[in-house]
Amino acid sequence: MKLPVSTEWLLHCAASLAQLEAGATASATQLAQYFDVPAAYLAKQLQSLVRGGVLAATTGPRGGFRLARDAARITLLDIVEAVDGASDPYECREIRQRGRGALSPEECRSPCILARKMAEAHDAWRQSLAATTLADIVAAIPASAPARTRARLTGAP
Amino acid sequence: MKLPVSTEWLLHCAASLAQLEAGATASATQLAQYFDVPAAYLAKQLQSLVRGGVLAATTGPRGGFRLARDAARITLLDIVEAVDGASDPYECREIRQRGRGALSPEECRSPCILARKMAEAHDAWRQSLAATTLADIVAAIPASAPARTRARLTGAP
DNA sequence: GGCCCGGTACTCGGATACAGTTTGTCCGAGTCCAAGCGG
DNA sequence: CCGCTTGGACTCGGACAAACTGTATCCGAGTACCGGGCC
């Protein structure tokens, strides 16, 4: 089980976008320079967030990415699942119905107890991530940070 | 984020071994036939559980795998982490210290808030899995199952 | 008959190929801004 | 001087290759059992 590296990038990107003024945008190039990561690949991953409804993108000059809705309405889970997919990492393939020890279909009416326990753990993980919003993140950093972030994102030295 | 398919195999293998009489063993071949999975690959993965201290292996005829300790002392987390590794799927690479928006080292004394939230979620997942033992699994299945499992594992038609 | 010895078959264990996903890169479609031209 | 047109540059979006982890397989090392031979 391993999360892509881009997950970290996008979490930080979203947190940075949350520090912008309402309506302001940042381009993929600006974000890539801000974090020193491959611009093209970052752009590709940002599209995942757009598809996931977390970010909104506008093309053309002065365009870029911005949060699709208020920072208080975007949870860390939204971001992670948009990047990495929302499927349970544990996939029950009904192994109990195969091979020499196959169970009869009647015995498999209720889902496998192991799959259920794994799903519960996944839910615990999801709930933990869903408990934090981008607004919480912004509130946790120093009050002077947003102004600096905005300045450095737009490119002024 | 995706868990290997073998995770399901080994969870079921461990659950089956927990249904054996104390001291009894089952070989990789028997388990593979029981679940209809590639025997060689299953054997390789069972080694992970041996290295993780979950199973004990004895070579030679009548040999095979058995639980390394009492089923009540083996949690699902022990198995999953033995197979898949115990590292946090989210790896903080301190992206905040790189690029144009790099923070000063003093500001990075405390760990990144995002990494902390992700670690909390991982802990919630771990705790959920650690709450269930193999003994709990065995207790949840019908009382008649262990006898049948033993019969079908050993190969009697 | 009991004990020792050797062969055999079965077990795990690690080293070795194949495939799918993640990572990284590229170029094209669309759009807004700005300058230049005409009225 | 003002408005329209046209060019340009900048943006995202999807299509196209390399690298790494997970998947699958094989053969070798070791060990307990079983049969035969010897005392």
TrEMBL record, chains A, B:
<protein>
    <submittedName>
        <fullName>Rrf2 family transcriptional regulator</fullName>
    </submittedName>
</protein>
<dbReference type="InterPro" id="IPR036388">
    <property type="entry name" value="WH-like_DNA-bd_sf"/>
</dbReference>
<dbReference type="InterPro" id="IPR036390">
    <property type="entry name" value="WH_DNA-bd_sf"/>
</dbReference>
<dbReference type="InterPro" id="IPR000944">
    <property type="entry name" value="Tscrpt_reg_Rrf2"/>
</dbReference>
<dbReference type="InterPro" id="IPR030489">
    <property type="entry name" value="TR_Rrf2-type_CS"/>
</dbReference>
<dbReference type="Pfam" id="PF02082">
    <property type="entry name" value="Rrf2"/>
</dbReference>
